[in-house]
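Hello,

Our lab assistant flagged a job as stuck in the queue for most of the afternoon. It eventually completed. Since we weren't sure the result was trustworthy after the delay, we are filing this so someone can double-check. Below is the sequence as submitted and the structure that was eventually returned. Let us know if re-running is recommended.
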Amino acid sequence: MLPDLTEALQQRKQAGLYRLRPVLEGPQSPHVTIEGRDFLAFCSNDYLGLANHPALIAAVAEGAQRYGVGSGASHLISGHSRAHHELEEALAAFVGLPRALLFSTGYMANMAVVTALAGREDAIFADRLNHASLNDAALLTRARFIRYPHLDLDVLARQLEATTARYRLVITDAVFSMDGDTAPVAELLALCRRFDAWLLVDDAHGFGVLGEQGRGCLYYPQQVERDVPNLIYMATLGKAAGVSGAFVAAQAPVIETLIQHGRTYGYTTAAPPLLAHTLLTSLQLIRQDVWRRERLVRLIALLRQKLQTLPWPLLPSETPIQPLLAGENQEAVRLDRALCERGIRVPAIRPPTVPQGMARLRISLSAAHTEADVEQLSVALHELAGC
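-- returned structure --
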């Protein structure tokens, strides 16, 4: 088996698909040191620039003093801290849903929801560009797994109408992590109500960034009706929130079902309570620091204006995720390496993360970036394009 693995890895290298892990020295920031070299980085999900915020650092220290470091047990044994409980209540109020439940990661949250609510007699409908965690969860349920073309609600409607499944669950990213475009959540919810289906929305990249006070996709571009039984909302807390973890918000019976039957909730040690304590401060900053989202909007517009004449097109996106389409794997890798030589980090994204022939540079903006940072990236890309 070992020679086969070695050969497969070599083939991956030759195809331009081999991944490496850059070692970051110091805190997350637009200006980082990786293995002794300084870089201007456009590769972080720290959209609001909170990952190294002094108030969060202070909150971590306070949380450690109050709650210790480890939680010591699962939530169902003795690991459910007052800090966890207070954060769940604050998150539910923030997104406007009755209850919320904390998870260690977004992957675990999606796994819990999908596997707890769907089984062999059911059908799951998924956007073709959904995150891997949603796809993996659907496969584990052994339900019928039906995918629809990206954002094609007409096809989805026909699929929902044709199914004879006991329960129907529609799962979708809110902001698609490799394309940066957004799902029409209000229209999806209306469609699910029409066909008596659940809707699970994964707002990992929208929470903290989109909508009024950063409340996420349920408030963008307008408020979605939330007092409905079939809406389930998931968001992560390690991106715009700057810390770690995830939560699911929904009606009380859904949350209670996840507590009883969510395997990735019940069969794992709870996250350290000091993180939950820190996230209460993060939530305050998300709500109060409107200027962070306003700066992001300006930087997104500036980047799109500066890069519009490049031979590699930007995909349509109004979010901090700005993909520059290179096409072939080797071209994306070439651009990645050439930018690294100029002291700029922008990751090349290749299959299977994106479809064949759709390799790209995934430019991620943060409120911690400056206009000068965007200008530096623009100059480097125009040099590489020869224009």
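-- support follow-up --
The delay was a queue issue, not a problem with the job. The result is valid. The radius of gyration is 21 Å. The mean pLDDT is 96.
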